[in-house]
Amino acid sequence: MSVKLRPATPEDIPVLQHWDAQPHVIAATGSDAPPDWIEDIGLTSPAFQTLIGEQGGRPVGVVQIIDPAGEPTRYWGDCEHNLRAIDIWIGEPDCLGQGLGTQMMTQAIERCFAAPEVTAILIDPLETNTDAQRFYRRLGFEEVGPRRFGDDDCTVMRLTRAGWEGRALPGQ
């Protein structure tokens, strides 16, 4: 069964807060404070989207897509225009390892590149999260290098539009 992305709503806040307390989510998000879901879902800026991945009506994960040059927290600092950055996580442990993240990430990437001005997508998995890095490499992301965000050592990775459009599809 496929996963569909939809905009997050205030009704999603309890499940998002529940996911924030899951050990696998904590391990993947480092020392960052959990998101302020009330604020994030309330943002109506084109620079910031929070999406819920659902499978058969069940919420299974969350994706945030931002314009790193235009989002208000300046998390990425000064960076070039025409980029997007993605954060993604699967909420419940029983949803891991089923391809749901791949479906969600593929849809998020397609959303990003639907805007013709977007040239590349950034992600910042923890340096210690080698499983996530391997996952992103399979999608075509390439390592840019290490970077410290707050107290966390991360590996910045980048997917160009050309890299996405030129990727080998399964069976090719």
Automatic annotation (TrEMBL):
InterPro entries named among the record's database cross-references: Acyl_CoA_acyltransferase, GNAT_dom
Domain N-acetyltransferase residues, every copy: 3-162
CDD domains: NAT_SF
Protein name: N-acetyltransferase domain-containing protein
Gene Ontology biological process terms from the UniProt entry: response to antibiotic
Keyword Glycosyltransferase tagged: no
Tree of life domain: Bacteria
